């Protein structure tokens, strides 16, 4: 085969709908690429449009979890697309070799896929053909996952109806096959099918024939999730919400990114280490200033990111150092927890909550939790925002960078610290749960009328609460929560519009859920997700924040 654009074709990697994929080597640089060769004489007018769309979209995309388009060209017989080569094969081959995957491996893969989907979601791009064959892996340890093959991808701002079916039937959302309806949530259905296959070794609609498969697609009954092998509560919850036949009931992208099983703000990524060291250094400074609650919660944030950094790190020596530091800072945080137990006055447990005298003050948070249990399980948890950037807040970035380099130098030495910092590369911003919370509050504003001024006060107070979290003023947030929580409950209980009340119930319960989670022991970081204890919304309401219960 003749070289093309300086590349020598060395190996046939596979065949697809429109052509073949070869491994090729650049004769000058010796770099390896995957070359998609598409015969011109097989392309229909629609296929030409799809190819043009694929090239246009790939030229715009720059993300570590999406394969990079290197170049494209054509001659009299073929169109050639030169794409980043992935030596680890695809997820389909990996699944065939493993049958089923452990939940921790699935979570790591799914988090990387979520990073890619978050990037596409920001750009209003729908892939429309997510399946294991289109998910490639590097051969590194741990492997990097990358989404590929954007031949069916489209830019979608809203739901549309098309006169054709795009994608692979086994991974296709039912609304596409049944009604030709395309929406951003169709990609999330495909993710659910892949998650199901990773867990149970088969797709939910696995069939012996096309007729059997299409019958399952058109069936209206809920997708059954097997009871064996057992899976964690978070994993089962996510799977059930991804595989909703009705796209209106399917989990939304924002909920998916912040679901406890995904937890994208804390997922392993290149920025995990710098986010960790910034929180840890800040925690040390706060502890020295005797701001113990803020210090403890910054240690918790730092440890969450440090655990992710350990998982992400591929260098054996660096990983060993990071593990040692993880154990060290867990000890530091646990010792601080003991100090907090000896300083009861440092936690806001003695104040009488402020209540609006015009409202019923007997609101029961336990009843609130029970009446909203389904929504609580599926809606994103509230966590303080740390975007994928060097600094977790909008404060002094220069000071943050200095703190990070200083601590990294202590861990790795000056030269190694420079290498670690340089390896992070350009940062990618991921919307945080805080930002999604603000978006939800904006939606609540639209539900408020002149007769519900008390609910308007609730929204105003929640904005202030999230602002305090964003600034990492945890002690102030605790004080503010204790002062106003009972009044929020009373205002919500007095509302007589069920849908609005349901929306407000979740928003009011989320702040308590946040602190009940964050004030638990840091030792759970050494456990797997399935071993970690669950912290429900407790009946004691704000009493869980007292030193003998919460910390």
Automatic annotation (TrEMBL):
Localization per record: Cytoplasm
GO cellular component: autophagosome; cytosol; phagophore assembly site membrane
All copies of domain Protein kinase, residue ranges: 7-262
UniProt-annotated stretches for the region Disordered: 346-395
InterPro entries found in the cross-reference section: Atg1-like, Kinase-like_dom_sf, MIT_dom, MIT_dom_sf, Prot_kinase_dom, Protein_kinase_ATP_BS, Ser/Thr_kinase_AS
Keyword Cytoplasm part of the UniProt annotation: yes
Residue ranges, compositional bias (Polar residues): 369-378, 385-395
Alphabetical UniProt keywords: ATP-binding, Autophagy, Cytoplasm, Kinase, Nucleotide-binding, Repeat, Serine/threonine-protein kinase, Transferase
GO molecular function per UniProt: ATP binding; protein serine/threonine kinase activity
Annotated SMART domains: S_TKc (SM00220)
Any GO BP: regulation of autophagy
Gene3D superfamilies, sorted: Phosphorylase Kinase, domain 1, Phosphotransferase system, lactose/cellobiose-type IIA subunit, Transferase(Phosphotransferase) domain 1
Residues holding ATP: 36
Entries under SUPFAM superfamilies matching the protein: MIT domain, Protein kinase-like (PK-like)
Enzyme Commission number, as recorded: 2.7.11.1
Pfam families xref list: MIT, Pkinase
Catalytic class of the enzyme: transferase
Coarse class of the protein's main subcellular location: cytoplasm
Name this polypeptide is given: Serine/threonine-protein kinase ULK3
Organism for this UniProt entry: Schistocephalus solidus (Tapeworm)
Upper lineage: Eukaryota, Metazoa, Spiralia, Lophotrochozoa, Platyhelminthes
């Amino acid at each position: 085969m003749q070289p093309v654009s300086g590349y020598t074709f060395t190996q046939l990697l596979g065949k697809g709908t429109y052509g073949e994929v070869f491994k090729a080597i650049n004769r000058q640089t010796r770099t390896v690429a995957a070359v998609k060769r598409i015969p011109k004489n097989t392309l229909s007018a629609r296929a030409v449009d799809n190819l043009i769309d694929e090239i246009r979209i790939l030229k715009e995309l720059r993300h570590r979890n999406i394969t990079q388009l290197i170049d494209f060209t054509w001659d009299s017989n073929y169109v050639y697309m030169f794409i980043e080569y992935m030596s680890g094969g695809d997820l389909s081959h990996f699944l065939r070799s493993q049958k089923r995957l452990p939940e921790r491996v699935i979570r790591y893969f799914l988090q990387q896929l979520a990073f890619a989907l978050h990037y596409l979601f920001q750009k209003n791009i729908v892939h429309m053909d997510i399946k294991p064959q289109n998910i490639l892996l590097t051969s590194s340890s741990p492997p990097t996952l990358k989404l590929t093959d954007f031949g069916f991808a489209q830019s979608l701002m809203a739901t549309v109806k098309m006169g054709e079916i795009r994608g692979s039937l086994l991974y296709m959302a039912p609304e596409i096959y049944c009604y030709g309806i395309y929406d951003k949530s169709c990609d999330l259905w495909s993710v659910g099918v892949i998650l199901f296959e990773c867990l149970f070794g088969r797709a939910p609609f696995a069939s012996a024939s096309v007729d059997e498969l299409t019958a399952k697609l058109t069936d209206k009954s809920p997708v059954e999730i097997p009871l064996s092998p057992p899976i964690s509560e978070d994993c089962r919850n996510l799977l059930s919400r991804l595989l909703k036949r009705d796209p209106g009931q399917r989990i939304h992208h924002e909920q998916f990114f912040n679901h406890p099983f995904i937890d994208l703000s804390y997922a392993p990524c290149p920025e995990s280490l710098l986010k960790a060291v910034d929180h840890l250094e800040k925690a040390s400074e706060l502890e020295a200033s005797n701001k113990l609650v803020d210090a403890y919660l910054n240690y918790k944030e730092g440890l969450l990111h440090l655990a992710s950094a350990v998982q992400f790190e591929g260098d054996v020596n660096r990983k060993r150092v990071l593990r040692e530091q993880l154990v060290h800072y867990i000890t530091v945080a646990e010792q601080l927890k003991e100090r907090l137990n000896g300083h009861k006055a440092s936690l806001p447990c003695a104040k009488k909550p402020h209540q609006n005298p015009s409202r019923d003050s007997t609101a029961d948070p336990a009843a609130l939790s029970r009446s909203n249990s389904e929504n609580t399980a599926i809606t994103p948890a509230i966590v303080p925002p740390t975007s994928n950037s060097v600094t977790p807040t909008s404060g002094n970035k220069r000071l943050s960078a200095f703190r990070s380099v200083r601590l990294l130098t202590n861990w790795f030495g000056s030269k190694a610290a420079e290498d670690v910092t340089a390896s992070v590369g350009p940062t990618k911003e991921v919307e945080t749960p805080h930002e999604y919370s603000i978006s939800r509050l904006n939606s609540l504003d639209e539900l408020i009328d002149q007769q519900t001024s008390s609910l308007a006060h609730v929204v105003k107070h929640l904005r202030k609460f999230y602002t305090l979290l964003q600034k990492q003023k945890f002690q102030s947030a605790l004080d503010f929560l204790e002062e106003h929580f009972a009044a929020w409950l009373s205002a919500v209980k007095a509302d007589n519009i069920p849908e609005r009340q349901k929306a407000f119930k979740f928003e009011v319960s989320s702040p308590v859920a946040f602190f009940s989670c964050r004030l638990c022991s840091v030792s759970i970081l050494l456990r797997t997700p399935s071993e970690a204890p669950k912290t429900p919304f407790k009946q004691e309401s704000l009493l869980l924040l007292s030193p003998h219960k919460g910390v």
